[in-house]
Design brief:
Number of domains: 3
Order of helices and strands: HEEEEHEEEEEEEHEEHEEEEEEEEEHHEE
GO molecular function: structural molecule activity
InterPro entries: Flag_FlgI (IPR001782)
Keywords: Bacterial flagellum, Cell projection, Cilium, Flagellum, Periplasm, Signal
Pfam families: FlgI
Largest sheet: 6 strands, antiparallel, barrel
Organism: Roseovarius lutimaris
């Protein structure tokens, strides 16, 4: 069924419909987040140098001049009252994520993004930039050569831009200077937070863990949380306990959901989506207005002026669409989409039909439009 639907969607040349089948058994660590085991966002404000005339215009970005003056003064160079207008520097924001259990001396990737009017960061070098967390403390310091994600070329009468040259990355560009205070070894219980909260999935996780390591070890608190009793597992440490249960297989239960992307015409749905009895009729109405002005000139040797006379042609055309069709109760949405594809319905018209079916209360699924 998936193969037939994909072929039908590709044959239209304008969109794609994908049917997602029931989930197979998944590892617990791919379904949950362990309480406390998470990353932390870092951000910093720095300066990129070495650009080939594609940096900030100092007049339009005075903050670039300010940070450049501060850096030079920290290096012992007094630039107070000086007038300089370099075009090879750019002010940037530097962002990164400090992984869980990251240790001092380790290295992490950073992303560099221009905040002024710089044209490109290609070939630039980020000067030593402290990275702060939400508590205001410095946890890492970034520096290095930027790998830009695009290219830009500018001429006297125009230019061309491919990708995003004002943003780039520095692999292993930040060194960790401070560690997050978190003692996993002191925990007596750990909560497992489901990425997709569901009572059935949480109950299955509880049952699988209790069956593998002992009854009473796991307890479902709600649809998104399962509590793990470390003491009942008789493990050497919480880390050993998590290592015992993270690879256990659980078959998750998915909600009936339809996701459509209006820009690309993509439709993604689960296999459990169902439609009640409903009638569908769809047609296209096209309104076309065309202006063909006519210039009227006076006769030879006659007094007068050339006048432009407006001429407007307005037409309404109704293209053939889908006649009144009835969908039987219990029909799956994938069967409806396959039927619409067979009729040659364009993906964007198909999205409008699905919206109308949902508005009529006949589509029994969560409907997500992006």
């Amino acid at each position: 069924m998936i193969f037939r639907t994909l072929v039908a969607g590709l044959a239209l040349g304008m969109g794609l419909m994908i049917t997602v089948a029931n989930a197979s058994p998944i590892r617990i660590k791919d379904l949950v987040e362990f309480d406390g085991v998470r990353g932390n966002d870092l951000v910093g404000y720095g300066l990129v140098v070495g650009l080939n005339g594609t940096g900030d215009g100092i007049r339009n970005a005075p903050f670039t001049e300010e940070i450049m003056s501060n850096i030079l003064e920290r290096l012992g160079i007094n630039v107070s009252g000086e007038q300089f207008r370099p075009k090879n520097v750019a002010a940037v924001f530097v962002t990164s994520e400090l992984p869980a259990f990251a240790r001092a001396g380790g290295q992490i990737d950073v992303t560099v993004s221009a905040i002024g009017d710089a044209k490109s960061l290609l070939g630039g070098t980020l000067i030593m930039t402290p990275l702060n967390a939400a508590d205001g403390q410095i946890y890492a310091v970034a520096q290095g050569t930027i790998i830009a994600g695009g290219v830009a070329a500018q001429g006297d009468a125009g230019g061309v831009v491919e990708g995003v040259p004002t943003s780039g990355t520095i692999p292993s560009g930040a060194r960790i200077e401070r560690e997050i205070d978190f003692e996993l070894a002191t925990l007596d219980t750990i909560r497992l937070a489901l990425r997709e909260p569901d009572f059935t999935t949480a109950a299955r996780i509880e049952r699988v863990i209790n069956g593998a390591v002992g009854r009473g070890v796991a307890a479902m608190l709600d649809s998104g949380t399962v509590r793990l009793n470390i003491a009942g597992m008789r493990a050497a440490s919480p880390a050993h306990a998590l290592g015992r249960i993270e690879n256990l297989l659980v078959e998750p239960e998915r909600k009936a959901r339809v996701v459509v992307d209006q820009r690309s015409g993509t439709i993604v749905m689960g296999e459990d989506v169902r439609i009640s009895r409903v009638a569908v009729s769809q047609g296209n109405l096209t309104l076309r207005i065309q202006e063909t002005p006519l210039a009227v000139q006076p006769n030879p040797f006659a007094r007068g002026e050339t006048v432009v006379v407006p001429r407007t042609e307005a037409t309404i055309q109704e293209e053939p669409g889908i006649g009144l069709a009835e969908v039987r109760p219990g029909t799956s949405l994938s069967e409806v989409i396959a039927g619409l594809n067979a009729l040659g319905v364009a993906p964007r018209d198909m999205i409008d039909i699905l919206k109308s079916i949902k508005a009529a209360g006949a589509l029994h699924a969560e409907f997500v439009v992006r």
